[in-house]
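In the design runs reported in the main text, the only information available to the sequence generator was the tokenized backbone. The following block is the verbatim input for one such run; it is reproduced so that readers can re-run the procedure and compare outputs position by position.
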């Protein structure tokens, strides 16, 4: 999220999409004109196997936790709805934003960020692992749709430049990742070294390290959705009562976890003021008992918070750039500091009462062990242990580092359920 103007940014005229924005990495035969190129992009992601797999991947709590909890797929659909409406209000092509939102979590491995951490460790010597970089790899290489007839290389979904660029949350590689506001490494990046060629193509004409407006809309839609919905899930699941913010000690705890997990984006005073605004408002649900009336009140709170956050960003962006359609590098999304503070407080609540406590649970340690074990045993038994598409990649890999990347691609593609099944079938070990 950005609160900065786009002064001096190069790019096409405000409100336009150019032929270059509609270009694809591989030239394709002319298609029916009943759909725009961007509508076709959205459809390709919607019908992808990677999107289907998100239905069995962890968002915050595992998919099998209960019948209510959000999965990566339901979260993705919510982000797409929020992002599409937000982008449309600013004049972005809604299908470009929708495609980026549908794609934004495709690269996440089994067990959510827990699995991401495990893969980052085992892949440290080959450039690491990052869910957003894996998303780009899926879109441009791994997801089956198009093969370059000239080279025989897989081109993934072969999306347009505009849609690909909109899906890049972190437009830099691992060695260029910026520090967080508090000076600690962010660890966030959007491209692996061996995907640099297609990354350079999709970023042609873009200022270094700057996201297009559609990517900023996608990122805000993601932040808004998971900050609000993680809290909703926690309340319904009995892990959090929103009355906790009435207690000074609890506010300090939320503040500390927000600093630890999200760095020093804002001053403590701004976060405390945001807590006061939230808990002092009529929307804030107290005494949730699970009745239909209580559930309706909670749902109304989440809906109105989403509208509040998106409306504030739309108003602030329009105030800076006027009423015309805004696209690509003609503008930057402006998020007021008060809005950012309230989003961070909701994230901090979920961290303090759901995410941080689970870190010490044996289940979460065991999940990381499952991922680490799978990488080791699949690498030892490759290519036999690999699915056919990944076995072909392994056979074409130039060296051990490239072969390990294929193994990581394979393990990352698994769902929570299939990772557990593969582990039970392939890994023999004495329980610790």
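Verbatim output:
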């Amino acid at each position: 999220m950005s609160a900065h103007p786009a002064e001096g940014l190069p790019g096409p005229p405000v409100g336009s999409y150019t032929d270059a924005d509609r270009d694809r990495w591989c030239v394709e035969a002319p298609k029916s004109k009943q759909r725009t190129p961007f509508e076709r992009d959205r459809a390709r992601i919607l019908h992808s196997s990677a999107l289907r797999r998100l239905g069995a991947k962890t968002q915050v709590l595992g998919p099998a936790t209960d019948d209510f909890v959000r999965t990566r797929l339901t979260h993705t659909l919510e982000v797409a709805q929020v992002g599409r409406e937000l982008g449309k209000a600013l004049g972005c092509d809604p299908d470009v934003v929708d495609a980026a939102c549908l794609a934004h979590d495709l690269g996440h491995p089994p067990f959510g960020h827990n699995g991401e951490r495990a893969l980052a460790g085992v892949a440290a010597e080959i450039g690491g692992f990052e869910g957003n970089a894996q998303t780009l790899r899926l879109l441009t290489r791994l997801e089956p749709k198009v093969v370059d007839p000239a080279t025989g290389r897989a081109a993934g979904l072969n999306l347009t430049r505009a849609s690909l660029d909109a899906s890049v949350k972190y437009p830099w590689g691992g060695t260029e990742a910026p520090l967080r506001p508090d000076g600690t490494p962010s660890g966030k990046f959007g491209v692996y070294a061996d995907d640099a060629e297609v990354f350079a193509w999709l970023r042609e004409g873009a200022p270094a390290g700057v996201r297009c407006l559609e990517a900023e809309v996608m990122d805000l839609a993601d932040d808004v959705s998971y900050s609000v919905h993680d809290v909703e899930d926690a309340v319904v699941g009995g892990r959090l009562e929103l009355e906790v913010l009435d207690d000074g000690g609890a506010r300090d705890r939320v503040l500390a976890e927000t600093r630890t997990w999200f760095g020093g984006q804002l001053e403590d005073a701004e976060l405390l003021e945001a807590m006061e605004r939230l808990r002092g408002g009529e929307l804030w649900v107290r005494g949730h008992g699970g009745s239909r009336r209580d559930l309706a009140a909670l749902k109304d709170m989440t809906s109105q918070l989403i509208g509040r956050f998106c409306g504030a960003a739309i108003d602030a962006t329009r105030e800076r750039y006027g009423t015309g359609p805004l696209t690509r590098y003609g503008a930057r999304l402006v998020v007021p500091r008060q809005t950012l503070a309230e989003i961070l407080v909701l994230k901090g609540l979920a961290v303090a009462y759901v995410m941080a406590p689970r870190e010490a649970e044996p289940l979460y340690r065991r999940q990381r062990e499952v991922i680490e074990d799978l990488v080791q045993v699949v690498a030892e038994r490759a290519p036999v242990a690999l699915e056919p598409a990944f076995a072909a990649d392994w056979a074409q890999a130039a060296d051990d580092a490239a072969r390990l990347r294929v193994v990581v691609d394979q393990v990352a593609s698994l769902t929570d359920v299939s990772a557990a099944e593969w582990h039970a079938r392939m890994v023999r070990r004495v329980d610790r």
